[in-house]
Design brief:
The protein is mainly alpha-helical and 145 residues long. The chain has helices spanning 2-14, 17-22, 25-43, 70-87, 92-103, 108-115, 119-144.
Protein backbone atom coordinates (compact mmCIF):
# COMPACT_ATOMS: atom_id res chain seq x y z
CA UNK A 1 0.00 0.00 0.00
CA UNK A 2 2.84 2.35 0.81
CA UNK A 3 4.38 1.91 -2.63
CA UNK A 4 0.99 2.55 -4.26
CA UNK A 5 0.49 5.79 -2.35
CA UNK A 6 4.04 6.89 -3.12
CA UNK A 7 3.44 6.31 -6.84
CA UNK A 8 0.11 8.12 -6.66
CA UNK A 9 1.67 11.10 -4.88
CA UNK A 10 4.51 11.35 -7.38
CA UNK A 11 2.14 11.00 -10.33
CA UNK A 12 -0.29 13.62 -9.02
CA UNK A 13 2.58 16.08 -8.72
CA UNK A 14 3.03 15.84 -12.50
CA UNK A 15 -0.67 16.25 -13.38
CA UNK A 16 -2.10 19.66 -14.34
CA UNK A 17 -4.61 21.15 -11.86
CA UNK A 18 -7.71 20.76 -14.12
CA UNK A 19 -7.05 17.05 -14.51
CA UNK A 20 -6.58 16.61 -10.76
CA UNK A 21 -9.91 18.38 -10.09
CA UNK A 22 -11.74 16.18 -12.61
CA UNK A 23 -10.09 12.98 -11.35
CA UNK A 24 -12.28 10.35 -9.69
CA UNK A 25 -9.85 9.64 -6.88
CA UNK A 26 -11.08 6.31 -5.53
CA UNK A 27 -11.11 4.38 -8.83
CA UNK A 28 -7.83 6.02 -9.83
CA UNK A 29 -6.15 4.95 -6.57
CA UNK A 30 -7.44 1.42 -7.09
CA UNK A 31 -5.96 1.42 -10.58
CA UNK A 32 -2.58 2.57 -9.23
CA UNK A 33 -2.73 -0.07 -6.49
CA UNK A 34 -3.75 -2.74 -8.99
CA UNK A 35 -0.80 -1.91 -11.22
CA UNK A 36 1.63 -1.93 -8.28
CA UNK A 37 0.31 -5.30 -7.13
CA UNK A 38 0.49 -6.73 -10.66
CA UNK A 39 4.12 -5.63 -10.87
CA UNK A 40 4.83 -7.25 -7.50
CA UNK A 41 3.13 -10.52 -8.45
CA UNK A 42 4.89 -10.70 -11.79
CA UNK A 43 8.25 -10.32 -10.05
CA UNK A 44 7.67 -12.81 -7.25
CA UNK A 45 6.75 -16.46 -7.11
CA UNK A 46 3.43 -17.20 -5.42
CA UNK A 47 3.23 -19.99 -2.88
CA UNK A 48 0.22 -22.29 -3.01
CA UNK A 49 -1.77 -23.23 0.07
CA UNK A 50 -3.86 -26.31 0.79
CA UNK A 51 -7.58 -25.64 0.92
CA UNK A 52 -8.62 -28.74 2.85
CA UNK A 53 -9.94 -26.65 5.74
CA UNK A 54 -12.01 -24.44 3.44
CA UNK A 55 -15.16 -26.50 2.98
CA UNK A 56 -17.89 -24.03 2.05
CA UNK A 57 -15.72 -21.41 0.41
CA UNK A 58 -17.12 -18.79 2.77
CA UNK A 59 -15.15 -16.85 5.29
CA UNK A 60 -16.55 -17.09 8.83
CA UNK A 61 -18.27 -14.07 10.30
CA UNK A 62 -16.48 -12.63 13.30
CA UNK A 63 -18.44 -12.45 16.53
CA UNK A 64 -18.66 -9.30 18.58
CA UNK A 65 -16.35 -10.90 21.14
CA UNK A 66 -13.68 -11.87 18.62
CA UNK A 67 -11.04 -10.28 20.87
CA UNK A 68 -11.71 -12.98 23.42
CA UNK A 69 -11.33 -15.71 20.76
CA UNK A 70 -8.06 -15.04 18.91
CA UNK A 71 -8.22 -18.44 17.23
CA UNK A 72 -11.20 -17.19 15.21
CA UNK A 73 -9.21 -14.20 14.01
CA UNK A 74 -6.26 -16.41 13.02
CA UNK A 75 -8.54 -18.93 11.31
CA UNK A 76 -10.37 -16.19 9.41
CA UNK A 77 -7.17 -14.56 8.21
CA UNK A 78 -5.76 -17.97 7.17
CA UNK A 79 -8.88 -18.73 5.14
CA UNK A 80 -8.70 -15.32 3.51
CA UNK A 81 -5.06 -15.94 2.53
CA UNK A 82 -6.00 -19.33 1.09
CA UNK A 83 -8.84 -17.77 -0.87
CA UNK A 84 -6.58 -14.99 -2.14
CA UNK A 85 -4.02 -17.59 -3.25
CA UNK A 86 -6.76 -19.46 -5.12
CA UNK A 87 -7.98 -16.24 -6.76
CA UNK A 88 -4.37 -15.53 -7.82
CA UNK A 89 -4.46 -18.67 -9.99
CA UNK A 90 -7.23 -17.25 -12.19
CA UNK A 91 -6.71 -15.52 -15.53
CA UNK A 92 -5.95 -11.81 -15.02
CA UNK A 93 -9.36 -10.59 -16.22
CA UNK A 94 -11.25 -12.79 -13.74
CA UNK A 95 -8.71 -12.23 -10.95
CA UNK A 96 -8.82 -8.44 -11.26
CA UNK A 97 -12.61 -8.24 -11.34
CA UNK A 98 -13.05 -10.54 -8.33
CA UNK A 99 -10.28 -8.84 -6.35
CA UNK A 100 -11.72 -5.38 -6.86
CA UNK A 101 -15.34 -6.40 -6.19
CA UNK A 102 -14.80 -8.67 -3.19
CA UNK A 103 -11.47 -7.74 -1.62
CA UNK A 104 -11.54 -4.08 -2.67
CA UNK A 105 -15.26 -3.59 -1.89
CA UNK A 106 -15.87 -1.80 -5.19
CA UNK A 107 -19.22 -1.88 -6.95
CA UNK A 108 -19.49 -3.38 -10.42
CA UNK A 109 -19.60 0.13 -11.87
CA UNK A 110 -16.48 1.25 -9.98
CA UNK A 111 -14.69 -1.92 -11.03
CA UNK A 112 -15.71 -1.31 -14.65
CA UNK A 113 -14.29 2.22 -14.43
CA UNK A 114 -10.99 1.00 -12.98
CA UNK A 115 -10.56 -1.77 -15.55
CA UNK A 116 -11.94 0.28 -18.48
CA UNK A 117 -14.57 -2.39 -19.26
CA UNK A 118 -18.35 -2.35 -19.51
CA UNK A 119 -20.38 -3.25 -16.44
CA UNK A 120 -21.75 -6.31 -18.28
CA UNK A 121 -18.23 -7.54 -18.93
CA UNK A 122 -17.34 -7.11 -15.24
CA UNK A 123 -20.43 -9.04 -14.16
CA UNK A 124 -19.47 -11.83 -16.56
CA UNK A 125 -15.86 -11.90 -15.31
CA UNK A 126 -17.00 -12.09 -11.67
CA UNK A 127 -19.62 -14.77 -12.35
CA UNK A 128 -17.27 -16.88 -14.47
CA UNK A 129 -14.37 -16.37 -12.05
CA UNK A 130 -16.41 -17.56 -9.08
CA UNK A 131 -17.55 -20.56 -11.11
CA UNK A 132 -13.90 -21.43 -11.85
CA UNK A 133 -12.96 -20.97 -8.19
CA UNK A 134 -15.65 -23.41 -7.11
CA UNK A 135 -14.45 -26.01 -9.62
CA UNK A 136 -10.82 -25.60 -8.54
CA UNK A 137 -11.76 -25.83 -4.90
CA UNK A 138 -13.78 -29.00 -5.53
CA UNK A 139 -10.91 -30.58 -7.44
CA UNK A 140 -8.49 -29.74 -4.64
CA UNK A 141 -10.88 -31.23 -2.08
CA UNK A 142 -11.10 -34.41 -4.19
CA UNK A 143 -7.31 -34.64 -4.37
CA UNK A 144 -7.09 -34.49 -0.57
CA UNK A 145 -9.56 -37.36 -0.17
Amino acid sequence: MQVAFERAFITLDNYPVPIIRALKLRPWLYKVTLNVSRNYVSRSKLHTVSLESLEDGDLPEQDEDWHSQPELVVESSERRRELEALVATLAPSYRDAISLCYFGDLSYQETANVLNKSIGTIKFYVHRGIELLRKRQESQMNEVR
